[in-house]
Amino acid sequence: MEVGFLGLGIMGKAISMNLLRNGFKVTVWNRTLSKCDELVAHGATVGGSPAEVIKKCTITIGMLADPAAALSVVFDKGGVLEQICPGKGYIDMSTVDHETSIKISQAITSKGGHFLEAPVSGSKQPAETGQLVILSAGEKALYDEAISALNVIGKKAFFLGEVGNGAKMKLVVNMIMGCMMNTFSEGLVLAEKSGLDPRTLLDVLDLGGIANPMFKGKGPTMLQSNYAPAFPLKHQQKDMRLALALGDENAVSMPIAAAANEAFKKARSLGLGDNDFSAVFEVVKDLKRSS
Ligand SMILES: NC(=O)C1=CN([C@@H]2O[C@H](COP(=O)(O)OP(=O)(O)OC[C@H]3O[C@@H](n4cnc5c(N)ncnc54)[C@H](OP(=O)(O)O)[C@@H]3O)[C@@H](O)[C@H]2O)C=CC1
Ligand SMILES: O=CCCC(=O)O
């Protein structure tokens, strides 16, 4: 199957490499075109614009930074809308809010095209190894048509019904994750300030009922102040912001998420936005130092 891919950031590059490794023909496009070179070296072809990729491929996947980027790739000159038509499908894997996803869906289906939102849980390494969790919603026929690619990209694909449900599920998951990262950071600081070895805390956590891959994977690198980005902090803050807006819309009080969002905002203001989201640890350390 020939698959188009728009957006070769951390996730897009890893997913399209994985598709190539698994025998898919992939045509890629990225705003910064030089990022296509590595994919071309592994057998991909390049489209000059999102529209060109759509013209060439029956199914095209997008993996863009945020709502503005996801909308731009569809609606701007040379965008998806110029070539989408009956028989062609667009799958947006970007993490966006449900309003953005619905807007994209309506525009695509009004031209006779097919649309699936499919944000993913899991980061760079699961993307490289096809172990993502796919949260899809929209046109079931497109989900079925794309299932061979989705099965290569993820270890499990959920179909959640109408467009918007995938976006909402993804924001709920990342809201929980962002809160956990803040609490984890506070725990590491509290252990250290009260005379405990935070590395022992990691061992204790890993053996108990709140053990999880995030604490296990990020804890050791956080203690070394190593924040090489797998999931950029600026995207985690975007997800907190969008999840809080979903909370506003549904009158759900989320004081813990609001506090976590403030910490991520502070981290961005300190220039940590391109670091891994675990760099919020630096903000938590700072707050404890000054209190
Ligand atoms: N990293 C992770 O662990 C995960 C990320 N996500 C989500 O996936 C999406 C991508 O994340 P990630 O790969 O980490 O992000 P990156 O920041 O690494 O990549 C962002 C991509 O979006 C493109 N882009 C940004 N702005 C525009 C624009 N205005 N027009 C066109 N293209 C644009 C970038 O192009 P350019 O190269 O030109 O800047 C790049 O291809 C985000 O929505 C994120 O929240 C979901 C799960 C995990
Ligand atoms: O959106 C990013 C999710 C990162 C993860 O699930 O580890």
UniProtKB/TrEMBL annotation:
User: What's its catalytic activity?
Assistant: 4-hydroxybutanoate + NADP(+) = succinate semialdehyde + NADPH + H(+); glycolate + NADP(+) = glyoxylate + NADPH + H(+)
Q: Which superkingdom? A: Eukaryota
| Signal peptide boundaries | none
Keywords on record: NAD, NADP, Oxidoreductase, Stress response
Q: Name one GO molecular function term.
A: glyoxylate reductase (NADPH) activity
The UniProt entry annotates the active site at 170
* GO cellular component: a single term: cytosol
Query: What Pfam families does the record tag this protein with?
Result: NAD_binding_11, NAD_binding_2
Task: Please indicate if the UniProt record lists Cell cycle as a keyword.
Answer: no
3-hydroxyisobutyrate dehydrogenase-like NAD-binding domain: which residues?
164-283
6-phosphogluconate dehydrogenase NADP-binding domain sequence ranges: 2-161
For this chain, the family text in UniProt reads: Belongs to the HIBADH-related family. NP60 subfamily.
Q: What task does this protein carry out?
A: Catalyzes the NADPH-dependent reduction of glyoxylate to glycolate as well as succinic semialdehyde (SSA) to gamma-hydroxybutyrate in vitro. May function in redox homeostasis and play a role in oxidative stress tolerance by detoxifying glyoxylate and SSA generated in glycolate metabolism and GABA metabolism, respectively.
Protein name in UniProt: Uncharacterized protein
